[in-house]
Write a sequence for this structure.
């Protein structure tokens, strides 16, 4: 049974096809957001978040002048139910995009993400110079009480100008990984999200810590 409203799926596909990006509210309900944040707490208590790196598996580098977020990769086989449900929804988006946009997406990789106060991620593209298997980037935001003074907006650099996306709870932002440059503006509060990429080939995930 479909758990993502068909109308949302259509909106994602239409917006991606016409503008290379899509922003959808209420992709997750308030209850789903809460359940996922509880999983963040567990991983944080166990010290599982690590400073994010830049580059692909063979060229990993930590550069705090480029990005300052903390991540934990999602292990799909051992994901807790709330995260499993999120992945099932992403799977539905993936299948819908394959049917309607012929993207040939095979799978996805995703991580829990925390931007502590003072963190940002400078302007970049999500495709690595050494590999271009990331086709669609997606970020689902989990910030229940986000206020403009918290910052941390996602800025998308588009042909017609920049767009800032507030990281509010339940919202899904996605965009073509190969063309849309973007950055995360300085965050003044803790900023929580699930970040992932739809890939056009199966990958070896064993390097993911
Ligand atoms: O969290 C966001 O809004 C974007 C994150 C991002 O650009 C990335 O992790 O590559
Ligand atoms: Fe990115």
């Amino acid at each position: 049974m479909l758990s993502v409203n068909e109308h949302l799926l259509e909106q994602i596909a239409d917006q991606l096809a016409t503008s290379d990006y899509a922003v959808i509210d209420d992709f997750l309900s308030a209850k789903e957001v809460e359940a996922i944040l509880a999983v963040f707490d567990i991983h944080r208590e166990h010290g599982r978040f690590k400073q994010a790196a830049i580059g692909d598996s063979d060229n990993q580098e930590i550069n705090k002048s480029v990005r300052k977020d903390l991540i934990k990769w999602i292990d799909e086989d051992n994901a807790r139910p709330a995260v499993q449900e999120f992945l099932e929804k992403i799977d539905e988006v993936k299948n819908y995009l394959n049917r309607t946009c012929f993207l040939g997406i095979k799978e996805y990789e995703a991580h829990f993400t925390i931007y502590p106060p003072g963190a940002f991620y400078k302007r970049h593209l999500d495709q690595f110079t050494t590999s271009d298997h990331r086709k669609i980037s997606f970020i689902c935001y989990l910030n229940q009480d986000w206020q403009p003074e918290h910052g941390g907006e996602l800025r998308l650099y588009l042909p017609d100008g920049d767009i800032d996306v507030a990281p509010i709870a339940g919202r899904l932002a996605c965009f073509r990984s190969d063309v849309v440059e973007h950055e995360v503006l300085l965050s003044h509060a803790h900023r929580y999200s699930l970040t992932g990429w739809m890939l056009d080939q199966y990958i070896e995930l064993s390097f993911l810590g």
Remarks:
- The helical segments are 6-19, 30-45, 81-101.
- The mean pLDDT is 91.
- Residues 124, 126, 137, 182 surround fe (ii) ion (ligand 2) (CB under 6 Å).
